[in-house]
Amino acid sequence: MITIAITGGIGSGKTQVTNYLISKGYTVVDADRMSREMTSAGGKAIPYIIENFGPSFILEDGSMDRAAMRDLVFRHPEKKRLLEEGTTKVVLEDIEAIKKERAANDDKALFFDIPLLFETGSEDDYDAVWVVTADYEVRRKRIMERDGIDQFMIDLIMDSQDGEDKKAALADHVIYNNGTLDELRESVDMTLRSYGL
Asked: What is the pTM of this model?
Protein backbone atom coordinates (compact mmCIF):
# COMPACT_ATOMS: atom_id res chain seq x y z
CA MET A 1 0.00 0.00 0.00
CA ILE A 2 1.28 3.42 -0.94
CA THR A 3 0.53 6.36 1.38
CA ILE A 4 0.01 9.70 -0.34
CA ALA A 5 -0.35 13.03 1.45
CA ILE A 6 -2.29 15.74 -0.36
CA THR A 7 -1.79 19.34 0.65
CA GLY A 8 -2.28 22.84 -0.68
CA GLY A 9 -2.99 26.34 0.48
CA ILE A 10 -6.47 27.58 1.31
CA GLY A 11 -8.53 28.02 -1.86
CA SER A 12 -6.28 25.78 -3.95
CA GLY A 13 -9.01 23.23 -4.70
CA LYS A 14 -7.61 20.46 -2.54
CA THR A 15 -11.09 19.42 -1.43
CA GLN A 16 -12.18 19.02 -5.06
CA VAL A 17 -9.23 16.66 -5.57
CA THR A 18 -10.00 14.58 -2.49
CA ASN A 19 -13.72 14.44 -3.29
CA TYR A 20 -12.84 13.15 -6.76
CA LEU A 21 -10.56 10.49 -5.28
CA ILE A 22 -13.37 9.38 -2.95
CA SER A 23 -15.76 9.19 -5.91
CA LYS A 24 -13.26 6.85 -7.58
CA GLY A 25 -13.35 4.53 -4.55
CA TYR A 26 -10.21 5.62 -2.73
CA THR A 27 -10.06 6.20 1.02
CA VAL A 28 -9.06 9.72 2.07
CA VAL A 29 -8.24 10.46 5.71
CA ASP A 30 -9.17 14.08 6.42
CA ALA A 31 -6.89 15.75 8.99
CA ASP A 32 -9.12 18.85 9.13
CA ARG A 33 -12.16 16.72 9.98
CA MET A 34 -10.17 15.00 12.72
CA SER A 35 -9.18 18.39 14.08
CA ARG A 36 -12.79 19.64 13.98
CA GLU A 37 -13.93 16.54 15.89
CA MET A 38 -11.28 17.21 18.53
CA THR A 39 -12.56 20.77 18.99
CA SER A 40 -16.27 19.94 18.89
CA ALA A 41 -18.37 19.51 22.04
CA GLY A 42 -16.82 16.73 24.10
CA GLY A 43 -13.75 16.60 21.85
CA LYS A 44 -10.45 15.59 23.40
CA ALA A 45 -8.84 18.99 22.73
CA ILE A 46 -11.50 21.00 24.60
CA PRO A 47 -9.86 20.65 28.06
CA TYR A 48 -6.54 21.78 26.55
CA ILE A 49 -8.19 24.82 24.96
CA ILE A 50 -9.91 25.83 28.20
CA GLU A 51 -6.64 25.44 30.13
CA ASN A 52 -4.49 27.36 27.64
CA PHE A 53 -6.90 29.90 26.14
CA GLY A 54 -9.67 30.23 28.71
CA PRO A 55 -13.41 29.46 28.68
CA SER A 56 -14.17 32.49 26.50
CA PHE A 57 -13.02 30.40 23.50
CA ILE A 58 -15.71 27.79 24.16
CA LEU A 59 -19.23 28.27 22.79
CA GLU A 60 -22.41 27.51 24.74
CA ASP A 61 -22.70 24.12 23.02
CA GLY A 62 -19.28 23.13 24.38
CA SER A 63 -17.37 23.42 21.10
CA MET A 64 -14.43 25.70 20.36
CA ASP A 65 -15.32 29.14 19.03
CA ARG A 66 -13.58 28.69 15.67
CA ALA A 67 -14.10 32.28 14.52
CA ALA A 68 -12.62 33.77 17.71
CA MET A 69 -9.73 31.31 17.68
CA ARG A 70 -9.01 31.94 14.00
CA ASP A 71 -8.91 35.68 14.64
CA LEU A 72 -6.53 35.18 17.57
CA VAL A 73 -4.05 32.72 16.03
CA PHE A 74 -3.65 34.50 12.71
CA ARG A 75 -2.85 37.76 14.52
CA HIS A 76 -0.54 36.16 17.11
CA PRO A 77 1.79 33.44 15.77
CA GLU A 78 2.77 32.31 19.28
CA LYS A 79 -0.90 31.50 20.01
CA LYS A 80 -1.06 29.52 16.77
CA ARG A 81 1.88 27.39 17.93
CA LEU A 82 0.19 26.87 21.30
CA LEU A 83 -3.05 25.71 19.64
CA GLU A 84 -1.14 23.32 17.38
CA GLU A 85 0.53 21.73 20.42
CA GLY A 86 -2.86 20.51 21.60
CA THR A 87 -4.49 19.78 18.26
CA THR A 88 -2.24 19.33 15.21
CA LYS A 89 0.33 17.13 16.96
CA VAL A 90 -2.41 14.89 18.33
CA VAL A 91 -3.98 14.59 14.86
CA LEU A 92 -0.62 13.54 13.40
CA GLU A 93 -0.30 10.85 16.08
CA ASP A 94 -3.81 9.61 15.26
CA ILE A 95 -2.91 9.50 11.55
CA GLU A 96 0.07 7.25 12.28
CA ALA A 97 -2.28 4.90 14.15
CA ILE A 98 -4.64 4.82 11.13
CA LYS A 99 -1.74 3.97 8.81
CA LYS A 100 -0.75 1.00 10.98
CA GLU A 101 -4.37 -0.14 11.22
CA ARG A 102 -4.92 0.02 7.45
CA ALA A 103 -1.60 -1.61 6.52
CA ALA A 104 -3.23 -5.04 6.80
CA ASN A 105 -5.87 -4.13 4.18
CA ASP A 106 -5.44 -4.74 0.48
CA ASP A 107 -5.73 -1.05 -0.42
CA LYS A 108 -3.47 -0.04 -3.31
CA ALA A 109 -3.28 3.49 -1.96
CA LEU A 110 -4.35 5.40 1.12
CA PHE A 111 -4.65 9.19 0.82
CA PHE A 112 -4.30 11.78 3.57
CA ASP A 113 -5.72 15.30 3.24
CA ILE A 114 -3.34 17.41 5.36
CA PRO A 115 -3.54 21.18 4.81
CA LEU A 116 -0.54 21.98 7.06
CA LEU A 117 1.67 19.10 5.94
CA PHE A 118 4.85 21.12 5.39
CA GLU A 119 4.15 23.51 8.25
CA THR A 120 4.15 20.53 10.64
CA GLY A 121 7.23 18.95 9.06
CA SER A 122 5.47 15.62 8.51
CA GLU A 123 5.97 15.31 4.74
CA ASP A 124 8.56 12.54 5.13
CA ASP A 125 5.99 10.31 6.86
CA TYR A 126 4.39 9.47 3.47
CA ASP A 127 5.51 7.61 0.36
CA ALA A 128 4.53 10.57 -1.84
CA VAL A 129 3.31 14.14 -1.50
CA TRP A 130 0.91 15.84 -3.92
CA VAL A 131 0.51 19.61 -3.82
CA VAL A 132 -2.63 21.21 -5.24
CA THR A 133 -2.03 24.82 -6.16
CA ALA A 134 -3.52 27.81 -7.96
CA ASP A 135 -2.58 31.42 -8.56
CA TYR A 136 -2.89 33.74 -5.54
CA GLU A 137 -5.73 35.83 -6.98
CA VAL A 138 -7.65 32.71 -8.08
CA ARG A 139 -7.38 31.31 -4.55
CA ARG A 140 -8.39 34.60 -2.91
CA LYS A 141 -11.48 34.90 -5.13
CA ARG A 142 -12.54 31.32 -4.33
CA ILE A 143 -12.21 31.89 -0.58
CA MET A 144 -14.22 35.12 -0.68
CA GLU A 145 -17.01 33.45 -2.67
CA ARG A 146 -17.00 30.27 -0.59
CA ASP A 147 -16.48 31.50 2.99
CA GLY A 148 -17.50 35.15 2.96
CA ILE A 149 -14.30 36.05 4.84
CA ASP A 150 -13.07 39.61 4.41
CA GLN A 151 -10.00 40.25 2.29
CA PHE A 152 -7.80 41.26 5.24
CA MET A 153 -8.41 37.96 7.07
CA ILE A 154 -7.90 35.98 3.85
CA ASP A 155 -4.50 37.62 3.36
CA LEU A 156 -3.55 36.85 6.98
CA ILE A 157 -4.49 33.19 6.56
CA MET A 158 -2.77 32.83 3.19
CA ASP A 159 0.37 34.59 4.39
CA SER A 160 0.57 32.34 7.46
CA GLN A 161 0.86 29.25 5.25
CA ASP A 162 4.04 28.23 3.49
CA GLY A 163 4.35 29.78 0.02
CA GLU A 164 3.03 27.88 -2.98
CA ASP A 165 6.44 27.87 -4.68
CA LYS A 166 8.05 26.30 -1.62
CA LYS A 167 5.36 23.62 -1.43
CA ALA A 168 5.62 22.85 -5.13
CA ALA A 169 9.40 22.48 -4.86
CA LEU A 170 9.01 19.92 -2.06
CA ALA A 171 6.24 17.91 -3.74
CA ASP A 172 6.51 14.68 -5.67
CA HIS A 173 3.63 15.85 -7.90
CA VAL A 174 2.05 19.28 -8.39
CA ILE A 175 -1.56 19.53 -9.55
CA TYR A 176 -2.36 22.98 -10.96
CA ASN A 177 -5.94 24.16 -10.52
CA ASN A 178 -6.43 27.44 -12.37
CA GLY A 179 -8.92 26.00 -14.86
CA THR A 180 -12.15 24.02 -14.91
CA LEU A 181 -13.22 21.11 -12.70
CA ASP A 182 -12.90 18.75 -15.69
CA GLU A 183 -9.32 19.92 -16.25
CA LEU A 184 -8.55 19.36 -12.57
CA ARG A 185 -9.97 15.83 -12.68
CA GLU A 186 -7.92 15.01 -15.77
CA SER A 187 -4.80 16.17 -13.94
CA VAL A 188 -5.69 13.89 -11.03
CA ASP A 189 -6.24 10.95 -13.40
CA MET A 190 -2.86 11.55 -15.05
CA THR A 191 -1.16 11.66 -11.66
CA LEU A 192 -2.88 8.45 -10.56
CA ARG A 193 -1.76 6.71 -13.75
CA SER A 194 1.83 7.67 -13.02
CA TYR A 195 1.55 5.54 -9.86
CA GLY A 196 -0.15 2.68 -11.64
CA LEU A 197 -3.43 3.48 -9.88
From this structure: 0.76
